[in-house]
Write a structure and sequence with these properties.
The protein is an all-alpha fold and 179 residues long. The protein is 50% helix and 0% strand. The chain is flat. The relative contact order is 0.08.
Length: 179
Amino acid sequence: MSSNVGLSTPRGSGTSGYVQRNLSSLRPRDTFAPYPTSELKHRQRQPNAEILEHDRLRQIEVQVFELRDKLEDEGVDEDEIEEQTEGLRRKLLSADDDDGDGTVGKNGGSERGKRGLKVHQIHELAKAKIEESERLRRALGIRDDYEEGSHWKRGEERLREGLVAEANKDDGGGRKERY
């Protein structure tokens, strides 16, 4: 045998002498935490404003292109097409700036809730989720500075204070400490 592992000789042992590792033995686990506890707090995904703005402008340009395509099919003069598309573009941009909420507006069809969004529209979904959470928070009267689980933390603190007060009361009640 090599490296002093296993039997010195397989004679009389009823085995071939082949040595295998014991895969069923359990090794002690690592003593550190598998994940940091400070990151357990839920953080809402923040949407990228540049991507939202790009999608908003893209929706406007899609509408402008649809109008251009329709007018070209009707055989309207090129100057008239340019004038109408620029007018629509200005109207949509000004209407959108008045709203200020990042939606294209009633004509754009982009003014839809979370249900109207597709799975690949991650930033729009994140924005809709933040707005939904904010509406729910206001409806339930939850403070802005509320921390999840703070009620249980306060309860634990009260329990600890009660135990400490009880322990202090017991120490002063006639028990003598020996040094």
